[in-house]
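Action item from last week, closing it out:
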Amino acid sequence: MIKKYLRSIVVSGFVVSTVVLAGCQSTMTSNVYSREEARAIQTIQEGTIIDLKSVTIEGTQSGIGGIAGGVAGGLAGSGIGGGSGSGIASVGGAVLGGVLANMAEEKMTRKQGVNITIRLTNGQLISIVQEVDPQMIFQNGQHVRIYSQQGTNRVVPVTM
């Protein structure tokens, strides 16, 4: 009876942590702004794309996944054995659950990105990595604008 109860707690913990992690995902596309970025002045530069490379943007490791996995693993481990064996299994389950959930969080929040190399109108070369946006396709030779604000840069095609 207790093992069934622990199993349902573990499953519930994984479901809750998955939902929380999905809600924590943010986007790094050029058309999404944070609340702090709204109504702030941006500087704009123009240039031409000279190179595009596909990249992977690393996922986050907020610790939420690790904590949830550690709790779930600890509860699962506590149902194994009895006496001091139960305590050892509980600690081992917590460590393993935390590590695995942290790895899962990073993998779930990874994004496909594009490294855009641009020759600005003043001749300077710059490179910006941003998340791939299926609505915004870049091509070599394309005229673009670079919007810069508080250390954040966005590349957007110029539309005539």
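Closing note: The longest helix spans residues 84-108.
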